[in-house]
Amino acid sequence: MSGLTRRQFIKIGAATAGAAAAGSGLVTRWWGLDDDPVHNPGTDGDRVVPTFCELCFWKCGVLAHVRDGRVTKITGNPAHPLSRGRLCPRGTGGTGLLYDPDRLKKPLMRRDKRGGEQVFEEVSWNEALDFTAQHLIGLKDKYGPEALALYSHGYGGSWFKHLMQAYGSKNIAAPSYAQCRGPREVAFQLTFGASLGSPEVLDLENSRVITLIGSHLGENMHNTQVQDFASAIDKGAQLIVVDPRFSTAAGKARYWLPIKPGTDIALLLAWMHVLINEGLYDREYVEKYAIGFDALREHVKDKTPEWAYTHTTIAPDVIVETARVMAGGRPASLVHPGRHVVWYGDDTQRSRAIAILNALLGSYARKGGIFVPSQLKLPKFPYKAYEHHPKAPPDTPKGSSYPLADETLAHGLCMATIPGTANYDIKGWLVYGTNLLMALPQPEEVKRAIQALDFMAVVDVLPAEITGWADVVLPEATYLERCDEIDNPPWKVPFAAVRQPVVEPMYDSKPGWWIAREIAQRLGLSDFFPWKDSLEYAIHRVHEAGYDCEQLRTTGVVLGKAKPTTIEDGLEPVFATPSGKIELFSQRIADAGFDPIPCFTPPEEPPSGQFRLLFGRAPTHTFARTTNNRMLGEIMSENELWVNATVVAELGLQHGEKVVAINQDGVRSQPIRLKATQRIRTDCVYMVHGFGHDAKGLTFARNRGADDARLVTRVKVDPLMGGTGMNVNFVRVEKA
Ligand SMILES: Nc1nc2c(c(=O)[nH]1)N[C@H]1C(S)=C(S)[C@@H](COP(=O)(O)OP(=O)(O)OC[C@H]3O[C@@H](n4cnc5c(=O)[nH]c(N)nc54)[C@H](O)[C@@H]3O)O[C@H]1N2
Ligand SMILES: Nc1nc2c(c(=O)[nH]1)N[C@H]1C(S)=C(S)[C@@H](COP(=O)(O)OP(=O)(O)OC[C@H]3O[C@@H](n4cnc5c(=O)[nH]c(N)nc54)[C@H](O)[C@@H]3O)O[C@H]1N2
Ligand code: SF4
Ligand SMILES: [Mo]
Question: Among 180, 267, 391, 631, which residue's Cβ finds the most Cβ atoms within 10 Å?
Answer without folding.
Answer: 267
